[in-house]
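pasting for the record
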Amino acid sequence: MDSVKWYAWKPGKNVLRIIPGFDPRHCQAEFDAYAPPPVDARECFYIEARRSKNVGPNKRVVFLDSTRPGPIEKLIQELQGCGDKAAELAIRKLQPANRAFFFVIDRHEEQVGPQCIDWNMLEYIKLFGLFVSPDNGDISCPFQGYDLIVEYIPKEASNNGFAQWPNMTAAANSTPITKDEDKWLDWLGEDLFETTKAGWPHSVEYIQACLDGTGGAFEGVLHLPPPPSEDSMHSRTVYRSPMPFPAPRNWPGSC
């Protein structure tokens, strides 16, 4: 399993390109872009997950299974019955938060390759606003998408003590995600959520080990397959077909 490279925000402008949801047709020279996506494709470029921080004495970060309660939820329920301030503080630290995960390319450090952003839902909703704007088309399209320009203010420099992303815009001109064939295949040739397990729920055993303080040494099953959904499908297949640059002839809007 490949490890996740997490994106570290830089003060000022961050120029990023969103990697689209995995679709094997992106690495095929000829295909019908209007046909239904293959069964092993991922329609959305992002996934949503529930995350808890500061878990256990080692302050681990864990991702939770949204379909059934686990050790974190059970512990919170027990603490709610205590009714004291210490319990309230512990609940606030453990309370799961909904997060959005997606992969990007840092245009100033493309050699690093795909990096994953773990973002709060408020900022993700702002990003979604750019997607629904008719002026931008499909921002994540690898052939005719746009770079994303995001201004970042770290908490040390903000006026409220919290990190801020005050401005988010799409670049003026659409471009292919890359003109380099090797990069194209590396970035688009596999489902990055499948290979890195970014945002996938941890197993009950691993979460309990984190609560007990033995999470770092746990050797059992770390991740569970994410719950299936209509817009989030997973594939273990790696495709290495010829790069369709600048775009397949039958791709919508191609020349």
